[in-house]
Amino acid sequence: MSHQSELIASDIFAYLKSQEEKSMLRFITCGSVDDGKSTLIGRLLWDSKLIFEDQLAALEADSKRGGTQNGAIDYALLLDGLLAEREQGITIDVAYRYFSTDKRKFIVADTPGHEQYTRNMVTGASTAGIAVILVDARKGILTQTRRHSYLVSLIGIRHVVLAVNKMDLVDYAPSRFHAIREEYESFAAGLGFSGITAIPISALQGDNVLLHSDKTPWYSGSTLMEYLEVVDISDIDDEKPFRMPVQWVNRPNLDFRGFCGTIASGRVKPGDQLVVAASGKASRVTRIVTMDGDLDEARAGQSITLTLEDEIDISRGDLLVDPQARPDHADQFEAQIVWMHEEHLLPGRSYLLKCGTVTVPAQVSALKYKINVNALQHEPGKTLELNEIGVCNLALSKAIAADPYRVNRVTGSFILIDRLTNATVGAGMINFALRRATNIHWQAQQVTPEQRAGLKHQRPCVIWFTGLSGSGKSTIANALEQKLAECGRHTILLDGDNIRHGLNRDLGFTEADRVENIRRIGEVAKLMMDAGLIVISAFISPYRAERELVRQLLPEGCFIEVYLSTPLEECEQRDVKGLYKKARQGTLPNFTGINAPYETPECPALVLDSSTLTVEQAVQTILQKMQLEASVG
Q1: Which domains, ranges and CATH numbers included, belong to the chain?
Q2: Helix (H) or strand (E) holding 394
Q3: Cα 379 to the center of its chain, rounded Å
Q4: pLDDT (tens digit per residue) in 42-75
Q5: Which of 492, 623, 626 minimizes the C-alpha distance to 558?
Q6: Packing angle, helices 143-155 and 174-187, rounded to 10
Q7: What is the sign of the dihedral through the CA atoms of 249, 251, 252 and 257?
Q8: Could you give the residue numbers annotated as active site?
Q9: What span, in angstroms and rounded, lies between the C-alpha atoms of 67 and 574?
Q10: Whole-prediction pTM value?
């Protein structure tokens, strides 16, 4: 709600006008568990008399029923609205509150302190201009304090308030405050903050929150509210080069074609020349259309529709830019990634990358190093776990236009999405484009895959056998190739063990190596199919995501997934290589079906159980599926 103003009763229009002209500050509270973030915001709202009467009544009742202050007002309950938050006394989700004072409007995000919910903190910080980092005066700087400070820096927030809370529990000792401030400033020296303002407070008692406290006569700085009302975070997005991601092409009739979007940075006026970043096509702005009429100028943050002089190809996902300051256009980038999912990052796995309004398939081609947020040091690693941060190389399926994050927070940020579950698994900030990617182009070839297939008089495809070790993949694949060869078909057999003697001899059996193993095989299978061959692949290929990646590499209908559903017990009885025995004894780690997972296909073309079918029966079933009986029978 807004602060109390006499204008509300006397002149509501004047009041609304005054609200419209105030500057807006977005800030977050963050820090470790139980440092008092929710209590601080609740205290700000309470002392500023920014609580409705029904909220006040509910707060008093909730404080008596389930508060943590022995029946007294528990200010944290104003923010912790989820039942689980109240039961545990922690913040889980990001809580947003809007309020205003005579000088400024505010949107505050109360972010979780628990390490498990760090990903939610990243969400809250993504639009903030200031971070209020709370520290319990009794505990000092903790691991989560350092993690949140690094994330705040990474996301681009440059102004930080170090709120040393619970000073009442250390008898308002100035020595304790100064020790924490010095330790934090030493740690944060390399984070690139423009300013760190340390304030001793007691959120519960209200000391130095809204008014100066007589219990800290040794402190002469501003209160938290005084700081928030006057801190200068001049919005310089207007002065940056023009960027507008196209969200929608508006074509209500034959006489109007406009390009809708929100300006990420810069300004635009009718007559300005703009360029489509991807194609390089240029035109001039004729109109800036809004619901309230045409504008003479638009700037960062405004949602508009642009019309252009020329009929050039522009669609959703394109980026309109200043021709004198164009973004990078590449299909490889170095980026910092915050991993936000329980299932860890697997380099080589295909994810969806969403940057602005464009979404493209992408892979983490290399994890260069992880970042230790406590020591701010680089550490080696092959994957990222939940809440870990790493610097990675990204390879995209096609080039996109993007800026380094330090230059533009909108066009330099992205999220990674799991292709099977649509869950957001990572948030990233682009460091720079890998320019060597812009020097690689497709070489035109005169002979097409269709011509190669015609020369062999066959329809090429990939028959992909998947299943546990010992399920019969190699045996049936060999028999299938022999049958096809007898019928004059041109084939190639790719077998898991054979490939690991050559092409993939550098790979082990970790999750990351298994992903890379199938990625390479998928690319090889595609090349072989382009050559006009019938490709038979026999690999355990335990993960659905990688099998789906191979399917998407190929033309529709050319990937025939054959799942060997032979029961685990039968596979173990066969155990011709003695692998199951070693896995059961614990001497063979990462063995599929025993100590590593196998993800059953959801919609395979065929399901075959070699414990109930003969090899010949299995081959005939596959041939029927391939629709080749007429030519091979």
Answers
A1: 7-230 (3.40.50.300), 237-321 (2.40.30.10), 328-436 (2.40.30.10), 449-632 (3.40.50.300)
A2: strand 389-402
A3: 21
A4: 777 766 665 555 555 555 555 555 555 555 555 4
A5: 626
A6: 50
A7: positive
A8: 541
A9: 62
A10: 0.71
